[in-house]
Amino acid sequence: MNADPTTSIVDLKARIKSFCEARDWDQYHNAKDLAIGVSTEAGELLDLFRFKSLEEVEGMFRNAREREDIEDEMADVLFFVLRLGQKYDIDLATALARKMEKNELKYPVEKTRGSNLKYDKF
Amino acid sequence: MNADPTTSIVDLKARIKSFCEARDWDQYHNAKDLAIGVSTEAGELLDLFRFKSLEEVEGMFRNAREREDIEDEMADVLFFVLRLGQKYDIDLATALARKMEKNELKYPVEKTRGSNLKYDKF
Amino acid sequence: MNADPTTSIVDLKARIKSFCEARDWDQYHNAKDLAIGVSTEAGELLDLFRFKSLEEVEGMFRNAREREDIEDEMADVLFFVLRLGQKYDIDLATALARKMEKNELKYPVEKTRGSNLKYDKF
Amino acid sequence: MNADPTTSIVDLKARIKSFCEARDWDQYHNAKDLAIGVSTEAGELLDLFRFKSLEEVEGMFRNAREREDIEDEMADVLFFVLRLGQKYDIDLATALARKMEKNELKYPVEKTRGSNLKYDKF
Questions:
Q1: Between C38 and which of B76, C80, D64, D97 could a Cys-Cys bridge form, CB atoms 3.0 to 4.6 Å apart?
Q2: CB contact burial D60-94 (16+ within 10 A = b; e otherwise)
Q3: What is the rounded CA–CA span in Å between residue A37 and residue C29?
Q4: How many CB atoms lie within 10 A of CB A50?
Q5: Where are chain C's structural domains?
Q6: Which residues on D lie below 8 Å from C100 (Cβ)?
């Protein structure tokens, strides 16, 4: 129920690798199709919120079935990001740390605090 | 350089929480806009491969600059998925494990081995 | 300035065909990559509204530069849908009419009037 | 069967306006949610081609049922682009013409002929 503190990125990659190899899916899992997977699953996640007000969206998280639908779609996005990382030897924790250092420069606290502007608009 | 074995999901969530709170972004980070973030960043990842052959895509991973571009876009997708999980108290490792159990049933090994069909097509 | 009443779908397809053939792009414009184009450009359109309130979004249409940004991204989505239609001999007006007849059945007026529910939820 | 030569953009907008007003959907059809609609339907179109080789994708257009699935998803994308144009008084033919003039400059024939490079890579 509370596995995020004890689950490493490598644990997740290993689980996914084993799932895909049992199905002999390496042949289909090139980077381009995996990126399509990330994108189409992200679309399914977003679709849950289409035409919903922000209040309705908050309510979905308090409804067990709707919350599970949301979590399922998030899991599908994660699946493809992790699979892409596993297939192409990408250390995701390092990639994320490096990108966030770039974001620290792109979005300096003093300029972006409380703002929703993009980095090219301030 | 090799942080995935020792980085937990909670470590990543904590890093992202601190980044966003320093910028007072909680007010903008409702689930709907975060899902938009997941989707638009997934589009940027996919855009790197548009009109590229599978051979060209493989070559991009051997080019340091292009590989970093790909990793950066993957990091951006991860950022929003993790932020959504952190903001709404979703245990992502549990969500992924549960979804993969559903996928084990939807895609039984004996029926899907070596196949690229969707679960509603076999 | 007001060309929609006098421009047919075939006019737009012809303009796009000529643009792409002058660049010898037929070789890259297979259906899969064109669908990637539709999706990534749709992401760029959506990205303009990320983290914006509904009021801010309305304001963007009253700002000449922001309105042009929105229209440009809509044009990019249209470009790829029309190119896909032109390349694969799809009569888009017929496809849209047929799909809307299906939607009339999926979303009957008496059940959907004033509702934002999906067809599988009422 | 062959309606694209005689159907104007305004004809399509009028059909969609009437469909949406009969359902009293104006209240949900703000630009942000309509852009979400464009993006999620584009994802459904792309999803049809996920893990398919280019040869398999070509074959889908020769199969009546699969061809109709593709056309339906293209129609859904068009629906939301046209609805957004109709709702916000955007002349789509003009927007497309203007964007293609920008693209003529971004992608000059002599530099882009036979190339799949983005404008910022040549």
A1: C80
A2: bbeeeeeeeebbbbbbbbbbbbbbbbbbbebbbbb
A3: 20
A4: 18
A5: 9-90, 91-122
A6: 15-16, 19, 75, 79
Taking the C-alpha atoms of residue A31 and residue B56, their distance in angstroms, rounded to an integer, is 11
8 Å CB contact between C14 and D21: no
Shortest distance between the Cα of C37 and any Cα of chain D, in A, equals 9
Give dist(CA A21, CA A53) in Å, integer: 41
Q: State the virtual CA torsion across D16, D21, D22, D25 in degrees, nearest 10.
A: 100
Q: Determine phi and psi for B81, rounding to 5 degrees.
A: -65, -45
Q: Once rounded to an integer, what is the mean pLDDT over residues D66-91?
A: 98
Q: Which amino acid is at A57?
A: V
Please tell me the pTM assigned to this model: 0.97
Do residue C47 and residue B28 have CB atoms under 8 angstroms apart? no
For chain C, the three-class secondary structure string (H helix, E strand, C coil) is CCCCCCCEHHHHHHHHHHHHHHCCCCCCCCHHHHHHHHHHHHHHHHHCCCCCCHHHHHHHHHCHHHHHHHHHHHHHHHHHHHHHHHHCCCCHHHHHHHHHHHHHHHCCHHHHCCCCCCHHHC
Compute the nearest-CA separation of D32 from chain A (Å).
9
Kindly list the residues of chain B whose beta carbon comes within 8 Å of any beta carbon in chain C.
28, 33, 36-37, 39-40, 42-44, 46-47, 49-51
Per-residue pLDDT of chain B (122 residues; tens, 9 = 90+): 699 999 999 999 999 999 999 999 999 999 999 999 999 999 999 999 999 999 999 999 999 999 999 999 999 999 999 999 999 999 999 999 999 999 999 999 999 999 999 888 87
Residue C121's pLDDT is what?
82
Q: How far A11 CA sits from the closest chain C CA (Å)?
A: 31
Report whether D122 contacts D115 (CB < 8 A). Answer: yes
Residue type, B117: L
Chain A / chain C CB contacts < 8 angstroms = 8
Residue C9 contacts by C-beta under 8 Å, 6 or more apart in sequence? Answer: C82, C85, C92, C93, D3, D4, D5, D7, D9, D12
Contact B116 D52 (CB under 8 A): yes
Q: Find the CB nearest A52 among C36, C51, C116.
A: C116
Q: How far is CA A13 from the centre of its chain?
A: 14
CB contact at 8 A, A50 and D40: yes
- For D51, the token pair is 């893990």
The CATH architecture of the domain made up of A9-90 is Orthogonal Bundle (1.10)
Cβ atoms of B45 and A95 within 8 Å: the answer is no
Instruction: Select the residue of D19, D57, D90 nearest C32 (Cβ to Cβ).
Output: D57
